[in-house]
Structure formats: structure tokens, C-alpha cells
Amino acid sequence: MPRQGRAIHHIVIVCLVFFVGACGLTTTRPKLEMSLAASAFLAAKKAKAQTLAPGLFRKSEFYFLKAKASYRKKFFNKAKQYAILSTKYAEQAEFVSVRKATLENL
């Protein structure tokens, strides 16, 4: 391969590596989703969901821990998905535990 061909080849490879690397930098951090998941998890804990709705609470805790681990590893898309799932299960656990606590007091 002539020198000029090799130089163009190297430039193309460098540009591709730079482009692929830049794609990872454009992913936004799921700060809102993580914050909502933490709030929902704490609200479920405050409503004593760990005893009144343990299955849903455990699912929420599992996904919350997975979201935190993914966020730490900078897998922001996965962290966002896990945070959304954690929020969903925490809200369900809180609802079930509040309902059970209300029905017990009647």
C-alpha cells in the first residue's frame, strides 16, 4: 500500500474511533429518574412496605440497587431503565402497604 493510502486509512480509523467514543459521551445522566426512584423507595420504606408488601418492596430494592450500580459504571441507559422499574415497584408497594394499614385500622 502506498504511503498516501496508509495515511488516509489511519485518518479514517482515527475518525471512526473518535466518533464512536463521542457517542458514549452524548448519553445524558438519568439524574431525575434516579432521584425519583430514591424518593419512591424511601416513601415505600416509610409506609412499612417491607413488612406489608414484601414482594413488591424487594423488587423495588433489587432494581434500585441495579440502577445505582449501572449509574456508577456509567451505563446510563440501563440505569434509567432500572430506576424506572424501581419507581414503579416502590409506588405499588407503598400503595399496597397503605391500603393494608388502612384496612387493618377499620
Blueprint of the fold:
Elements: H1 3-25, H2 31-46, H3 49-52, H4 54-72, H5 76-104
In short:
Helix content is 86%, strand content 0%. With 106 residues, the protein is mainly α. It has one domain.
Features:
rod-shaped, mainly alpha, 5 helices, single chain, 106 residues, 86% helix
Describe the structure.
It is a single chain. The protein is an all-alpha fold and 106 residues long. The protein has one domain. The protein has helices at residues 3-25, 31-46, 49-52, 54-72, 76-104. Helix 2 runs antiparallel to helix 4 (54-72), helix 2 (31-46) runs parallel beside helix 5 and helix 4 (54-72) packs antiparallel against helix 5 (76-104). The protein is rod-shaped and about 85 Å long. 27% of the residues are buried. The model has no long low-confidence stretch (mean pLDDT 88).
Biggest sheet: strands, sense, closure? Answer: none
Amount of beta strand: under 5%
Uncertain parts: none
Number of helices: 5
The number of domains is: 1
Overall, the morphology is: rod-shaped
Oligomer: single chain
Topology as a string of helices (H) and strands (E): HHHHH
Would you tell me the overall average pLDDT? Answer: 88
Cα end-to-end separation: 86 Å
The chain-level structural class is mainly alpha
C-alpha-based Rg, rounded = 23 Å
